[in-house]
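Hey,

The postdoc asked me to send both predictions to you directly instead of through the lab channel. I've kept everything plain text so nothing gets mangled by the mail client. Protein one:
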Amino acid sequence: MSTYQIAGALRGGRRRVAVADPVMTAAGCVVALVVLVALLAPLIAPYDPNAVDPAAVYAGPSGAHWLGTDDTGRDILSRLIHGARPSLIAPAAVVLLATAAGTTLAIAAAWAGGWVDRVISGVLDVIFGFPGLIMAVVAATIFGPGLLVPVLAMSIAYVPLIARVLRNSALKERNLPYIAALQLLGTPTWRIWLRHLLPNLLPIVTVQATVGFGYALLDIAAISFIGLGAQPPQAEWGLMVSSGYPGILSGQAGQVLYSGITIVVIVIAFNLLGSGLSRKLLGEGL
């Protein structure tokens, strides 16, 4: 019997019955559609997102401009489509960096225990005391506007959101008999981490990353809204809300309305998807 067969026999576990979840399916379809739009933006956008047309300033919805134009005559639909890329890539980078660091720290803390666990938990508690949005604002104020600095700052701030939850699960997994059996068989620590601990924790990681993506997208949009994230004339959803805000006073709320609705729909979709994955993979709702 191989070490993997021994580990599986000692770990046990319960089978999960696949049950259709229409809400999760709908949310997943929305997410998949937005990702597809972001990938195909240059092919499906009807206009150059930065093409200015002085003759079409604040044009209403029509056959030429389905969602109308903004204060410089740029096509709103084209800007929404092209804005999907930075609006999705930035939070994706936050989630990937935070998940990688948080997972590593959680497993290391649970595995080593003792003073290592206390130090890692203490550092995470300190970072957790600083909201990601505040860290991003401070970092962008010091190093200058743009998406790179806020992404790095928010990645650090999001690490405890992954690590604190994952550490408890990793600790329970660490104390299961199959881990002791693998150690007695002389299995290298790195192999236990990669072949057993990480795969068994993957459902929790997936759920946390999915829900975290929605919050990261909202924070990135907020950073761009206050002028410290994406910079004009780049098409980005948060920046579009900010740029279109003055138009509300003159009754031209199209840009704010469409970009704001897009942000809300995507955030809700990711939260519903995360909740559905939680029920499906962990047997509980968020």
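Protein two:
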Amino acid sequence: MISARGLTKSFGDFEAVKGIDVEVRRGEAFGFLGPNGAGKSSTMRMIAATSPVSGGELRILGLDPATDGPAIRGRLGVCPQDDTLDTELDVFDNLFIYGRYFGLPREEVRARADELLEFVQLTDKAHAKVDDLSGGMKRRLTIARSLVNRPDLLLLDEPTTGLDPQARHVLWDRLFRLKQAGVTLVLTTHYMDEAEQLCDRLVVMDKGRIVAEGSPLDLIREHSTREVAELRFGIAREGETHEALAAQVANLGDRVEVLPDRLLVYSEDGDAVVAAVQARGLRPVATLVRRSTLEDVFLRLTGRTLVD
């Protein structure tokens, strides 16, 4: 569905994407994970055939976006990072008029709009104004609109940014149903839980480069330990810092990450780490033992959290 070799994107002297290789297979959910400014959105705009490639080779649905842009765009569904719904139209007409842009017959578009409103659970809002919808409803309407032309490939740029947890989970459910129906999904996100929920495979991007690739589970196995012990200390004494405390527990795990509010000790047995910390006379105000996540993978690869 997508094949990129040595793909680059430059804006003047700034190189946003620095020679990446990507392959996306039919029917899978593929993700670009990384912090803001990693090059995810620049890559997505090239895949959407709306931003020219600066260097390397890119094929979308077997076509060259430099010469076949209109043909590619006609077979894509795009859910942009920011909603671009027409606030002068009601919910139904946002779908109906958008569908007519693709030259689809009126009755077909009307039936498709009704079907999509039911799919995204907005049938009862068909004649409501866009401004009256919640943020989650607007995102679901934007996804419905991106499906009007029955796309071969659906691109989603930060699909749940700004949504509350309940709205995010409703949207995840709709996207999971699309994947089950065989739609190929490509999404960017800086939410590690979203990537773990939705993606069959993903790449981790940082500063325009791919620093890791694989399934969420494979990445966790390769770049992290089985468990993580989170230690929160009340820094009370002068000169006492998380860095100094990290030195005292450094040999209790495979590695230690120092965050502003806590220490992360990576090991195969987090409970044993907590017990050893207490045996050394250290008294964290709170402890948590959990499984490793993609957030831990990102810390290992870049030394930064997913959202800077």
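Summary for protein two, as requested: The radius of gyration is 23 Å.

Thanks,
C.
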